[in-house]
Amino acid sequence: MLKFQVHSPGKVILHGEHAVVYNRPALAAVVGLGTNLQFRQEAGSQVASFQVEALNCTLEIQLADFNAFLKNFRSKYPADSTAKLMEEVRGEVSKQLERAAGSTKPHTQRAFISIYYLLAGAVLSSPKDPKLTIQTGFQVQVDTELNVGAGLGSSALLGAALAAAFLILSGHFDQESYLQKENQSLISSWAYESERVNHGTPSGLDNTVCTYGGMLRYVKGQGFQSLRIQKPLNILLVDSRVNRSTADIVAKVRHLAEGFPQLIEAIWQACEELVTAAVPLYESFGNAQDDSAKFEKLERLFQINNDLLKAIGVSHPKLEQIFTIAFKRGFFSKLTGAGAGGYAIVLLPENYDCNEGYWKLKEELESSGFGVHVTTAGGVGLRVSSLDD
Predict the structure, then answer these.
(1) What pTM was estimated for this model as a whole?
(2) Active site residue 386
(3) Bridge-based pairing state of the strands 57-62 and 215-219
(4) Is a pLDDT exceeding 80 seen at residue 107?
(5) Of residues 291, 377, 379, 292, the one with CA closest to residue 334
(6) Rounded-to-integer distance, Cα 61 and Cα 171, Å
(7) Is 353 a catalytic residue?
(8) Which of 131, 151, 159, 228 is the most buried (most CB within 10 A)?
């Protein structure tokens, strides 16, 4: 019986958020917080059950119904018809939810569609058996250290964890070979597919960085380049506790860009120049005598980047409060992700825990009602490991 766990890390965008939607480069990094998925096959069971803590929901798929869906799909379409698969899954899930008692919240419905779609896609494309069906039930439990919809890639890293689990289940690769490049690419591509359920036309950044890890320079439609950083960066993640819709914010920025095309284009150009200036600083930081000077430059880039994001209207009073508290204590910060809430990043120097100002910063942020997490940016990506009961 298969039994394993998947850790999928969250991400922060260090520079280039919003500009990345317009084919400008962004720098992103995984953080030391993420989502943990536990997978257990259950002998004799004919049910696939999913407990997703972050969404406060439990979902079940009856294997008889699922295998009937697979048979029907194979009779109508080629196995690689992902667009048709999404359409058919939406219809199937809608029918199942109609039969279920009670109403279903939109986020629960999206989660069900994403899970069903990823599982069906993994099985239909199985290299082991083109007519594979799921014969043994299993249980999936998902716990997370991140708030959903707060800009740390929660939907993408859930999709990556589920994709890895289902690809292992359906024989694409085993628990030991998930780090092979072709397998990482497969995980990332299916995680992107699951993102389409939540965001329609995602940039592809979130699923890429949480799968591969480290720090990446990413351009939509052109793939990514891994930065050769010397060590992860110390950061403070500050949760504004303000939820918002990424899709809505992106739409508002697009409306602004349509109204002032030349002005907003100049901001995107500045964002690109900022990324270009930041890359060599991140790659050389931690490996030279002039780290102090480099850190000061990174602080200034954080400030410039944050001001550019404010200019396109994606700040929030709670974020402004975080920026003010950080600046008062001598630290530089910026929003990350879509903005208008979510998280802010505070850049921390080496030996920050020996700095009295850091402890006062942390205390003031917490007393103001914000969630505070000390972590790093630029660590390892998705990992699969054995599960010990």
Answers:
(1) 0.87
(2) no
(3) unpaired
(4) no
(5) 377
(6) 20
(7) no
(8) 159
